[in-house]
Amino acid sequence: MTSSRSLVPLPSQPTDTPWPVAGWPEAPPSGDVDSSNLNRLLDLAFSDPAPEVMGETHAFLAVQGGRIVSERYWREYTVGDTYPSWSEAKSITHALVGILTREGLIDVHAPADVPEWQAPGDPRRHITLDQLLRMSSGLKFAEDYVDAGVSDVIEMLFGGGKDDVASFAANFPLVHEPGSAWSYASGTTNIVARCAARALGSSGDAFRSWMFRELFEPIGAQSAQPKFDEQGTFIGSSFCYATARDFARFGLLYMRDGVWDGQRILPEGWVDYARTPTNTPPAEPLGYGAHWWLGLCGPGSFSANGYQGQYTVLVPELDVILVRHGNSMDEQGDEVRRWLAQVADCFR
Q1: Cα 255 to chain center, whole Å?
Q2: Per-residue pLDDT tens over the stretch 51-67
Q3: Is there a contact between 256 and 10 (Cβ–Cβ < 8 Å)?
Q4: Can you tell me the distance from the alpha carbon of 70 to that of 247, in angstroms, rounded to the nearest whole number?
Q5: Residue 117 DSSP label
Q6: Which pTM does this prediction carry?
């Protein structure tokens, strides 16, 4: 779907490593990994009480070459516990749109199927799914998780918009010409999630069954718990719980270019589309692709990032996936991201 000439090549599954079909293969880190520094960083993150600079880390695992090489949990948390996705779910929504694209049910470069925008003369009717996936729709939306007085996302998820998250988001006006400005907005993703349901022709339990049949079951992510609003729309901006190991499975699907154990789940080029940069403001420290963040752990890395420090980070040049879940406040986010970058450096 896009040219990969400027992207770091995605690694293939090592021939001596089985796919994690029933369970994850495990091994110690390879010999060139700085294990001493890795253990020091993990001891810091999992110290008790939690370090004030980065908050609580509840789960961490590292996958190298398709094998779990490091895994740790905090206090009473275990390998079987599920963790909130928050905005990691946006990248799951990207995968769902990819599956519909594979089936010829969606064209991301066509105007999005949004009923609220279909009146004659409404400039929003020209917004494409590509612009929505790249957070460049031009729609007004205040993404603020702290100040409920000015926060559209709090109102959408927990206030007057919670029963119909997509309609709530779709009723905002344009403040920029579509495609001309980048602005991260959870409402955008819920519009996309409803577009996916409309393309499939089902919502609620039927859409959930489709998600499992087409995405979660093929990769063995049995713990996934997607949440839906009262209209049956997957709240793709924010709510899909899963174990750390299943978030790593999702990461491995993208690391392997959308193929799982010989089965193509995402269309060819879809992962490159996710990590092809979108124009972002100079003040934004990370890059952005299509519902995936770019550059958290160095050039070529891409990641699913969630509120309070939820991360699934892919570093293709190292064939490393890092999963971190915890409870970190906004002001601790920079330190968590620095910590993840330092962990990735242990594998270089």
Answers
A1: 13
A2: 999 999 999 999 999 99
A3: yes
A4: 15
A5: G
A6: 0.97
